[in-house]
Design a protein that fits this description.
The chain contains six helices and 14 strands. It folds into two domains: 2-147, 3-Layer(aba) Sandwich (Rossmann fold), CATH 3.40.50.410; 168-251, Immunoglobulin-like (Sandwich). Strand 1 (2-4) and strand 2 form a beta hairpin. By secondary structure, the protein is of the alpha+beta class. It has a four-stranded antiparallel sheet. Strands 3-4-5 form a three-stranded parallel sheet. The longest helix is centred in the middle third of the chain and has 22 residues, at 130-151. InterPro entries: ECM_Assembly_Org (IPR050525), FN3_dom (IPR003961), FN3_sf (IPR036116), Ig-like_fold (IPR013783), VWF_A (IPR002035), vWFA_dom_sf (IPR036465). It comes from Sakesphorus luctuosus.
């Protein structure tokens, strides 16, 4: 399976989409690069919520591996979600290119780091990792499979287990030109934390707020007026991730001043008055001479 990410993660294909090596290689040749921001935490959440579900092809008995390829430092908290994946028995390999932050790669990756963290100076140099990485991945899968076979157990993989772990009923209210309130009903088992991600639907940098799991409301402020926002509320547990809530709404336009009046005219001054714009803290008044030929 493969997902690309910048501000918003995008699944290119699921684990069950292709069944042969040739099909996968052809899909890679046709892949279109997605540029943009580096929201690695949001991407790892997407992988756990979407790509590692059974209906996307994930098998309960199979080893779960995630290979993260990034060329920059994450603009959100990648460590919290990475720890959740690792607690679920998912092994993370982190590969950095160019401007990747090696300290962050080492935090995100699974132990032992000498086998799971790689860093190269440019994209063409990735080819030098293929042989070694292939051998390491195959060896790790065999080692883990042998251990589980010896114990005759299959590790439970508690992802997206409905109302037990997932909040419901997202409500967006008290919308103004620069703020809105979010409320939701918590799941039966309160999460450790909530990650609330919001960004303009027509493009813009996502912002993130991390809340304690006992909280079920948030006021978003410093928004842009007359803008449609996408909002996601994601519950994070020590050993699982519940389904996220998503909503969309638009902020109101800014209030305008009204009823402009001109009075007390003299040879070099005029007085202006108007009805106030609600919420305005300052006014900018522009004055210029009428163009030649126009009415004075």
């Amino acid at each position: 399976g493969l997902s690309q990410y910048s501000s918003d993660p995008r699944t290119e294909w699921d684990l069950s989409t292709y069944s042969t090596r040739e099909q996968v290689l052809e899909a890679i040749r046709n892949l279109r690069y997605k540029g943009g921001n580096t929201f690695t935490g949001l991407a790892l959440t997407h992988v756990l919520e979407q790509n590692l579900k059974q209906d996307a092809g994930a098998r309960l008995e199979a080893e779960k591996l995630v290979i993260l390829l990034t060329d920059g430092k994450s603009q959100d908290d990648a460590n919290l979600v990475a720890q959740t994946l690792k607690n679920l028995g998912i092994e993370i390999f982190a590969i950095g290119v160019k401007n990747a932050d090696e300290a962050e790669l080492r935090q995100v990756a699974s132990e032992p780091l000498e086998l799971t963290v790689y860093n190269v100076l440019d994209f063409p140099l990735l080819s030098s990792l293929v042989g070694k990485l292939t051998r390491v991945l195959c060896t790790r899968i065999k080692e883990k499979s042998n251990k589980e076979t010896a114990g005759s157990t299959v590790k439970d993989f508690p992802v997206n287990t409905g109302p037990q772990l997932s909040p419901t009923d997202l409500k967006i209210s008290a919308v103004t030109s620069k703020s809105m309130n979010l409320t939701w009903s918590p799941p039966l088992r309160p999460p450790k934390k909530y990650r609330v991600v919001y960004y303009p639907s027509k493009g813009g940098t996502p912002k993130e707020v991390v809340l304690d799991g006992a909280v079920s409301s948030l006021r978003l402020s410093n928004l842009t007026s007359q803008t449609e926002y996408l909002v996601s509320v994601l519950p994070v547990y020590d050993t699982a991730v519940g389904d996220g809530l998503r909503g969309i709404t638009s902020t109101l336009p800014l209030s305008s001043p009204r009823s402009l009046r001109v009075s007390e005219l003299s040879h070099n001054s005029i007085r202006l008055s108007w009805k106030a714009a609600q919420g305005a803290t300052h006014y900018l008044v522009l004055c210029s001479a009428a163009p030649e030929g126009a009415e004075d």
